[in-house]
Amino acid sequence: MKKAYLAVSIVFSLVVLCLLGPARILRAQEKGSLSIMPLPAHAVLGEGEFPIDGNFGIALKGYKEPRLEKAQQRFLDTLSRETGIPLWREAILNAPDFIIQTAGPSAAVQQLGEDESYRLEISTTGVQLTASNPLGVLRGLQTFLQLVRVTPKSFSVPVVTIDDKPRFPWRGLLIDSGHRFVPISVIKHNLDGMEAVKLNVFHWRFADNQGFHVESKKFPLLQKKGSGGFYYSQDEVREIIAYAHDRGMRVVPEFDMPCHTTSWFLGYVELSSGQDPLRSSAIDPTRQSTYRFLSRFIGEMAALFPDSYFHAGGDECDSKEWEGNPRIQKFMRARAIKDGGTLQAVFTARIEKIIASQRKTMVGWDEVLRPDTPKDVVIQSWRGPESLAEAARNGYRGVLSCGYYIDLNQSAAEHYLVDPLGANAATLTSDQKARVLGGEATMWTDIVSHENMDNRVWPRTAAIAERLWSPQQVQDVDSMYQRLAIVSQKLGFYGLRHRLITDEMLERMSGEMNPEPLKVLAAVLQPPRLYQRQELRAFTDFTPLNRLDDAVPPESDTARQFNEIANRIASGKAIPQDWRQAREWLVLWRDNDAKLQPLLKRSFLTQDLAPVSQNLARVAEIGLQALDDLQGDRLISADARQRNIEFLRLSAKPQAVLLLMVAPSVELLVQAIRTQ
Amino acid sequence: MKKAYLAVSIVFSLVVLCLLGPARILRAQEKGSLSIMPLPAHAVLGEGEFPIDGNFGIALKGYKEPRLEKAQQRFLDTLSRETGIPLWREAILNAPDFIIQTAGPSAAVQQLGEDESYRLEISTTGVQLTASNPLGVLRGLQTFLQLVRVTPKSFSVPVVTIDDKPRFPWRGLLIDSGHRFVPISVIKHNLDGMEAVKLNVFHWRFADNQGFHVESKKFPLLQKKGSGGFYYSQDEVREIIAYAHDRGMRVVPEFDMPCHTTSWFLGYVELSSGQDPLRSSAIDPTRQSTYRFLSRFIGEMAALFPDSYFHAGGDECDSKEWEGNPRIQKFMRARAIKDGGTLQAVFTARIEKIIASQRKTMVGWDEVLRPDTPKDVVIQSWRGPESLAEAARNGYRGVLSCGYYIDLNQSAAEHYLVDPLGANAATLTSDQKARVLGGEATMWTDIVSHENMDNRVWPRTAAIAERLWSPQQVQDVDSMYQRLAIVSQKLGFYGLRHRLITDEMLERMSGEMNPEPLKVLAAVLQPPRLYQRQELRAFTDFTPLNRLDDAVPPESDTARQFNEIANRIASGKAIPQDWRQAREWLVLWRDNDAKLQPLLKRSFLTQDLAPVSQNLARVAEIGLQALDDLQGDRLISADARQRNIEFLRLSAKPQAVLLLMVAPSVELLVQAIRTQ
């Protein structure tokens, strides 16, 4: 499901609902000292460490295939980047102290549910990685890379024995190349990031009303008319499939139908339901020619994508377009089809047959689930764990995406605590639970570009990856954030750009070499959550995404940390360092406005930030006064407090499409002051 | 010429000599308000600006070829990155306000001295770029991109008319893929950087004693035995040649012979002069089989590289290897060859004939110039403008590299003020001057890896590019540094990593997410200049280059700026802002040590920085005291002053293979205090 603006209010309430579902259990981490994500199923820490230096050597034993050799090479490249020690060729020549033992092959085309388990034994003198097939080796190598750290003696990994396997077999990331074209290079480094956190499904969506971005040889007008010149050639698609296969990932293509399909009609107007194809978004499900077209098209795409699953979309159909078309009305009346939803079911049944004839299993969004939907169709749920649990009860397999919409600027913690088997699924039988295959983070590109995509996807997707891989009881949010910071840095070494984007964009929008005061402001701002951005600014497909709400990460680390400190101060649990840190930040924020204002005037992209910066200064002043009052145990007048609280609440509201994230934390401080 | 350690002392004195040559004329810039590099030959600034927004449209007129279309697309990609406005497809569809008018084609294989001129006319309503061939268009597009800036109204370029052409026809960058293999991706983005600053020769060196890194199909043991598995396939070479051609650059290959060739002998021992080929670095110039081999090899490579020039090295031969070999001695006696130098001349003459038989012109380092060297051989000078001028007097064409050794950690200003026609060349006739073709920056990789290469090459190479492109009288160092900072930021938008590398490496070596105190220290340190690093640490080909002297840029901007302030304070020309800034920095440096010391202990890569950090704190204390004394016009005892000066000079010496660049500036302050 994408975020057609029509659906905002429904989506809003459903997303909130499914996010509140799982209880926020904050348990202490049993495996706390492994700073990796996802945490392994089982690990026993030993004493000491295995050093990594120029003598490091590696060897493949047992079953071999080119993919393993490439994996070994990439492992050495990454290890070299993590340490600065040139191991990429030397480690092959050195005596091996890292042995990779592979029992046998995995399936030629990666299958859902294949064994991904591995055993990684690290002693002070050697490393043994054992797996039944190359998939487990790939997972184990990533675990090792994440364990690398620098110590007073050398780079090293800790002595540990890890027995690991995933909780769910379907752990995906959707990248939406329909709304906006996403260059191959961006796809590739996101696949690198997916590999690092052990995701195994790249769900690649190619078309939407806005564009059709993959090459069809049978229907070339799809990309010729629908792509604006930017589409993936079939060779590039094969390149990405091979790239994903090398990293132990399946590629599931999605062609959303019968709606969100305006771009198809630019080349093939006869598919359209409407009189004016450019104002139609729905395929005409009543014509035989539609099915002849789709049969050939799906045949072509099913051959291009080797995966056993084929996603046919099916979400958010605007039935009114059909119900308002006299010809389609006539068709419906003649067949006693009572409404658009039922007409879509007729369409879905035909499409399912076409997909099945290609020996593939259909995947569809919630809406494809109807009483007579074939039982092997996999349901991808944007409506929430409820609908997923309901599907499982009715014999359907499903994948959760509700709660994993990483374009909506929610916190890593919010995503982390959504469990595909949480809330309503708790009452499922174990057979029914087994039908819940996992989940997918969804990177929709309505108002995200390939430029800032990395900073939306990472590092938060690592938290979702942990939810889908690690045991259900791994739920300590503090531990997650601690490890997320470390993994985020590692992902930078692996080539992801999420940590660089904000500064680059701040430099560009300000025209300054080092816009320090703008960075100070940006560090405590977030874009509004869920669908509020669209309510605050009119976005079209051509709106440049080059403002501060595009540049800042979805979650402010500084604001989160300040909030923790404010909580401790307000509840009387603060240590002296908390008071110092709070004061230091508040002084920085108070004094920042005077430095920032002249800079903001110089660029049309920063002028609207003037009141945001003023608010931060005033919020900080109130915070400093609150610290003084609390430390001096002073009483203030209820009136004065109320005025401050009102200002803080006003400041917490969106301004320039941004949220000042520290205002609520300062309110905590103010609320803690005693009144006269 | 590479930096075999043997040659250090000679090279040292020559480099110093050639750097002192050109007078340091600091003229005011006539075209000061264009913040671009290289400055154009002629520009007339107008009033107003041309805005860049979503309506921007571009069109090619006149002569067309695929290279121009690709250039237009890259231009739009870059413009989109510089502005965040998605123009990459839209600008082709919009009504064109930017017209590119090309008169005709350039040579199919780019030739030395082809017309690269262009005219760029920017008005408030449109842009016209005119050139006689695609090379001029490429240059003009880069000028436009560098002009883009953000204003209170929009992104825009200033109204200006530029008539531009290069001063020298040979403007190169050498990348040494002989000492260390440099991945294709690194080559590519350096070519992007070269394009941005209008360089036109990529000098690609493939082999040295340490490795042979390109595929020969005729002699496959060269790469099989000599490369450790890392070499450029011929397809990759062709890919790079095409990539360079698209950017208006020639690719001149270098195969250095007869010395620096140990890696050749791993596969073809019969080429070697010595009994033990692994201890031999010189090809045997006395055997007929050598010339049969080289004839076939050069034939293969001459076919692979379309450029008319072929570089055969010829530098730094150790004659003793020949003179100590009885068989070679016998050969020399029989032919009355009096020494190794003369024997090399015999070899060079044969090689020159082989190259000429491929219809190519030979290029060689200084040493190939002998009384009987054919007049069309091009001399690349590592010895200095003197030897270049001498060659020109004798009828040879030449290219200057002395003074442009960007691996030696000199300042941009030092490189900038070296002129191929400076010093001794001033007395040349205009015919002789025309034989000085230009220059080449040289990126040797003895102790530079592909990881930190960008931060060695950029941004300083832009200063060399300006020297080679812009009129000779463009010599204002202050203006150069101002523009260099802006261009450095632009180069970041174009994909170069030079501004990112230091922080990444500091994070890695410290193991910290944001090692702020280490950044403060790093910002005032530089690696020692010229060949001093090798004197201070034993480097082998396997030494990891992951320490602070690898991480920091060759030139500290902070130290340079502090030095300017200290100079103004010491000479009584400081403004209040200078005093404030000096004090702010000194306080930061003084207080940094206490924060940094605990961090340094945690990593084996930072432990040796403890005394460097202590020194910075003490230097800063002395500096703060000096500011107090100067502001209070206090007299101090000559003894106390002398003790401080001694400490400052000691602190200015290398420690942990690093130079504390602010110590001499603090000495300026101390020297300015009056004594009792």
Molecular structure report:
2 copies of one chain form a homodimer. In chain A, 44% of the residues lie in helices and 14% in strands. By secondary structure, chain A is an alpha/beta fold. In chain A, the strands form 4 sheets. Chain A has an 8-stranded parallel sheet. In chain A, strands 1, 2, 3, 4, 5, 6 and 7 form a 7-stranded mixed sheet that branches. In chain A, strands 10-11 form a two-stranded antiparallel sheet. In chain A, helix 5 runs parallel beside helix 7. The model of chain A is unreliable at 1-32 (pLDDT under 50).
What percentage of amino acids of chain A are in beta strands?
Answer: 5-15%
Q: How would a textbook summarize the main sheet of chain A?
A: 8 strands, parallel
What's the gyration radius of chain A in Å? 27 Å
Helix content percent band of chain A:
40-55%
Let me know the number of strands of chain A. Answer: 19
Give the class of chain A from helix and strand content and strand pairing: alpha/beta
What's the helix count of chain A? 27
Largest Cβ-defined interface:
A-B, 48 and 48 residues
- Indicate the multimeric state: homodimer
Strand order of the largest sheet of chain A: 12-9-8-17-16-15-14-13
Estimate the mean pLDDT confidence of chain A. Answer: 93
